[in-house]
Design goal:
single chain, about 375 residues, alpha/beta, seven-stranded mixed β-sheet, six-stranded mixed β-sheet, globular
């Protein structure tokens, strides 16, 4: 076997099978994103030059098969061939890190809601976080970023029928699968009240409630990252914050907004975050993204509102101070975000390879 699929490697990691993932990319590419638990050898230049000894002096821990990884699966195949020539059990990851961007794993979020369960689906190859709430045979999916079949299989495995699909806002760093999921599952598509998207949906205004079995979402309008950004309060247990609030960062206000408009949206974000600070401090913050590859550990990425705002306390000395600090720390814009936003606003099925559009780390957070 010379190659393996993303699905096979994902299953191995999820089942904690012995495997060594060897990343042979350049350091700058490795720094952008990596596979959890992988080891790195900067062999990109040597492999590209066709050197047969690119991996000759490398000692690799003997822990099951070796899976070589590069950007698109070409140089990693050469690396696997060289390792097999040394008698090692080595295979190459088909499609490389671009294909790995769709890999995912799951963790269950503890809920203080009787008869309800909440799953955090982590797109570990991209950092996108989505959620399935299930109760009394019904389910709702929030911020779907993976193929609809992933959510359909998870819902079926738990005996749930997907009845609602929600987004927290119009996403800029990944193609939203929410519209397609709603169409394929027959669910109602719920989006924050807005005039950005060009397809039919059921609007959620500030304070609107959505009942899912014994659990319920309440919509909290929190403009700033985008004008329509909305958080979803799940009973007295969790707060799904989209890209408004992360576990150690806040959303960026400048995508599709420059100059004075970006400053105004930064002010809106400050006021929205101040609104969230008034909520019960025990609520678990559940963001739509993380900036690090997600381990296959089953531990949800969540912290209390109290802990999150304690970490961000020096951001809130004043509104002017917040705005100045935020605008001075903006990261580079997400790659291809204008095309991604256009797709998400039009609701069209993409005709190109979406993983190529979505390549690279998400950049919607400001630290």
């Amino acid at each position: 076997m010379g190659d393996i699929t993303v699905e096979t490697l994902r299953d191995w990691l999820a089942e904690h099978k012995p495997v060594t993932v060897l990343d042979v990319r350049a350091q700058e590419d490795r720094d952008q994103w990596s596979i959890p638990g992988s080891i790195h050898v900067n062999a990109y230049g040597s492999l590209k030059q066709g050197r047969g000894d690119a991996l000759a002096d490398i000692e690799i821990p003997a822990r099951g098969p070796i899976v070589t990884v590069c950007g698109h699966g070409k140089l990693s195949r050469i690396a696997a061939e060289q390792l097999r020539a040394r008698g090692m059990d080595a295979v190459s990851l088909i499609g490389g890190m671009q294909a790995w961007s769709l890999a995912w794993n799951v963790a269950e979020v503890p809920l203080a809601v009787s008869g309800a369960r909440l799953l955090q689906i982590r797109r570990t190859g991209k950092g996108c976080l989505s959620y399935i709430l299930g109760s009394e045979g019904s389910a709702a999916v929030v911020d779907a970023s993976l193929e609809p079949s992933v959510y359909a299989r998870l819902a079926e495995a738990h005996g749930w029928r997907i009845r609602y699909v929600l987004d927290t806002h119009v996403h800029a760093d990944h193609f939203s699968r929410s519209k397609i999921l709603a169409e394929e599952s027959g669910a109602t598509l719920l989006l924050p009240e807005q005039h950005r998207v060009h397809f039919d949906f059921s609007p959620l205004s500030d304070g609107a409630a959505v009942q899912v079995g014994s659990a319920a979402f309440s919509a909290l309008r929190t403009p700033g990252h985008t004008v329509e950004s909305t958080c979803y309060l799940l009973n007295d247990s969790c707060l799904m914050t989209g890209d408004t609030l992360f576990l150690g960062a806040v959303g960026r206000p400048d995508l599709h907004a420059k100059g004075s408009e970006a400053r105004e949206r930064a002010s809106l974000l400050f006021r929205s975050l101040c609104r969230l600070r008034l909520l019960p401090q025990h609520l678990l913050v559940l963001p739509a993204h993380t900036s690090m590859p997600v381990e296959f550990d089953g531990v949800p990425l969540a912290e209390s509102l109290e802990d999150v705002f304690a970490r961000l306390s020096d951001w809130f000395t004043s509104e002017d101070g917040f705005v100045t600090r935020l605008l001075s720390r903006l990261p580079p814009e997400p790659p291809n975000y204008l095309q991604i936003v256009d797709l998400n606003e039009r609701g069209d099925s993409p005709t190109m390879d979406v993983t190529e559009l979505e390549a690279g780390a998400n950049r919607c957070a400001v630290y």
